[in-house]
Design goal:
CATH topology of the largest domain: Archaeosine Trna-guanine Transglycosylase, Chain: A, domain 4
Number of strands: 15
Strand content: 25-35%
CATH superfamily of the largest domain: Hypothetical protein
Largest sheet: 8 strands, mixed
CATH class of the largest domain: Mainly Beta
Number of domains: 2
Radius of gyration: 21 Å
Structural class: alpha+beta
Distance between the termini: 44 Å
Order of helices and strands: EHHEEEHEHEEHEHHEEHEEHHEEHEH
Shape: globular
Low-confidence stretches: none
């Protein structure tokens, strides 16, 4: 049932796909709306597999009052998630998280204050997803749908998912995670070589924004939950100082020490379960890592952003700027040093770290 996300024109989609049945049921005007989008040449992000459409994301720019049953919110620029729907066979898979991650990136790019979505009570899985990512219910509309809003003026930094894609300004220490190129390109297949933003979004939507990396340092590391980190792709092709690069940045959401200096905190089976389906390692690779290393740490992170082709920061640049003076696991950046790295990657820091 392998498939992938792609940006598609409405006119290329089959409105008779059974995926659309629930949308036609919930919204009597859906067919007319869909046909207007087709005529206007608009695009949507869809996941397709051997069975047809499995997920669908449509975004819309708005600047009009938002009418609720108990209030009218003023007219401001907003991004509306016009449609986010998953098929029954895809629920519980990472597609919803990935698609919503793309929607939030798009919102961040536009630099408008709010993003919102409407959803019926019956869509429990979607409601949980929106709430996990910091959307707050502000009331009901005239259809009886809940209206969920997320505002960049009122981000919840108590949880890195709730504030995603933004990074809290409250951190004092940042780090770097070294990942050999083969594993890096499986875990972050869009960070290093892709220059086309649509291709990146398609990959992110299909792979999700939660990443798990298995670290095997020679000693315990300094990483803490809420700490931002640069993702460092270690090249095995010389000259390594110009090929090894920071490609992207993330925020640590879990640090689980599985083994420390050969003392096992978790047995093999528990460690494999902890790694879950969000790592790129096979069960054999996970087992080999566990058996062959004295220290094993499971790092979970939420993927905040990437620099993109031509903007990655080489080892040579880092070293020349005093930002790579010890082994990567031992590097501890100050807040100002991490901001400097973002700037070296041509990132608009004010649109990533909001005070």
């Amino acid at each position: 049932m392998a498939g992938k996300f792609q940006w598609e024109k409405f006119s290329n989609l089959n409105l008779n796909d059974t995926f659309f049945d629930s949308l036609k049921k919930d919204y009597p005007e859906f067919v007319d709306w869909f046909n207007r989008k087709s005529i206007n040449g608009e695009e949507t992000l869809v996941f397709k597999d051997d069975y047809g459409i499995g997920a669908f994301l449509y975004l819309k720019d708005e600047e009009e009052p938002l009418e609720l049953n108990n209030q009218i919110l003023p007219s401001i620029k907003r991004v509306k998630i016009g449609t986010l729907r998953l098929s029954e066979r895809q629920r519980g898979i990472r597609l919803g998280e990935g698609a919503l991650g793309v929607a939030l990136w798009k919102w961040q790019e536009k630099q408008v204050d709010e993003i919102y979505v409407t959803v019926f009570d019956s869509h429990v899985t979607l409601i949980r997803l929106f709430e996990r990512f910091g959307f707050t219910c502000v009331g009901l509309n005239n259809r009886g749908e809940r209206v969920y809003i997320k505002s960049r003026k009122n981000l919840d930094y108590s949880d890195s998912y709730k504030s995603f894609p933004f990074i809290s300004s409250n951190f004092t220490v940042a780090g770097i995670i070294p990942i050999y190129e083969d594993y890096h390109d499986k875990l972050f297949p869009y960070s290093e070589l892709k220059g086309n933003s649509k291709e990146v979004e398609e990959e992110v939507a299909g792979n999700g924004i939660t990443k798990i990396f298995i670290a095997t340092p020679s000693s315990l590391m300094h990483y803490n939950v809420g700490e931002p980190v640069g993702i460092y792709r270690i090249s095995q092709i010389p000259p390594k100082t110009y090929k090894s690069v920071i490609t992207s940045y993330a925020t640590i959401t879990k640090v689980i020490t599985v083994k420390s200096n050969n003392y096992c905190y978790y047995p093999l089976d528990s460690y494999i379960d902890l790694s879950g389906n969000k790592t790129i390692y096979s069960q054999k690779e996970l087992t080999d890592i566990y058996m062959q290393n004295k220290t094993v740490v499971v790092l979970e992170m939420v993927y905040n952003g990437y620099f993109g082709k031509g903007h990655n920061i080489t080892h040579n640049e880092l070293q020349s700027n005093g930002l790579f003076e010890t082994y990567p696991y031992n590097i501890e950046y100050t807040k100002n040093e991490f901001i400097r790295i973002l700037e070296m990657g041509d990132t608009n820091v004010q649109n990533v770290i909001i005070d």
